[in-house]
Specification:
The protein is mainly alpha-helical and 199 residues long. The chain is 76% helix and 0% strand. The chain is built from 9 helices and no strands.
């Protein structure tokens, strides 16, 4: 990596970091791009060069946080005793992250308002692909019913995402969260094949 490329990458990281702080504290609408760039010793030109505009900067911040959320959820899921429980734990972890003020404001409130349908975001596409792989594995193992992989993955992801959006928009997020998690687990359990013990 040459010096110019390295400097550009550093500037991009600085702007994203400052924007993340500003968007979390003030919200997208109130965050000032002049203050933000001045804080990291850069010009508005650097911001426009890297992100196009304020909306492009929000998209970069949302992608960073959403990717971190997916990795955190995956890490939690990997600690479960089996793949099925891991799938449920990942979904539950993602839903619980809606209680994080930064996640709530940037990803779940400002993100959809400015960037549109979250299911179309690149970071969500990555989550969907990971869920597809897990569903394929569970169907192959006979843990999950013979279900269309795409349909099951989209509905599982969609229910976790919509639960998180509900929590973020709620005036009583702490009360809503356990209800959302219980409903998510019940919905998901409908995809599980009953073991022979149940017949």
């Amino acid at each position: 990596m040459n010096q110019r490329t390295k400097t550009m990458a550093e500037n991009r990281a600085k702007i994203i970091s400052a924007a993340r702080k500003a968007f979390a504290e003030k919200g997208y609408t109130s965050a000032s791009m002049d203050e933000l760039t001045a804080e990291v010793g850069l010009t508005r030109g650097a911001l426009y060069h890297n992100f196009g505009d304020k909306r492009g900067l929000l998209a970069a911040v949302v992608e960073q946080i959403d990717t971190e959320m997916a990795l955190r959820a995956k890490e939690i899921g990997s600690q479960a005793e089996n793949v099925w429980e891991g799938l449920l734990a990942e979904g539950e972890a993602y839903i619980r992250m809606a209680l994080d003020p930064e996640v709530q404001r940037i990803v779940l409130l400002d993100g959809p308002a400015v960037l549109g349908d979250p299911s179309q975001w690149p970071s969500q596409s990555n989550c969907l692909e990971a869920t597809r792989q897990t569903v394929r594995e569970l169907v192959a193992q006979g843990v999950m019913k013979q279900v269309d992989t795409e349909a099951a993955a989209r509905l599982l992801n969609g229910s976790a995402l919509n639960a998180a959006l509900w929590i973020a928009a709620s005036s009583t997020p702490q009360e809503v969260t356990p209800k959302a998690i219980e409903a998510f687990r019940l919905l998901a359990s409908g995809l599980k094949r009953l073991s022979p013990d149940f017949f």
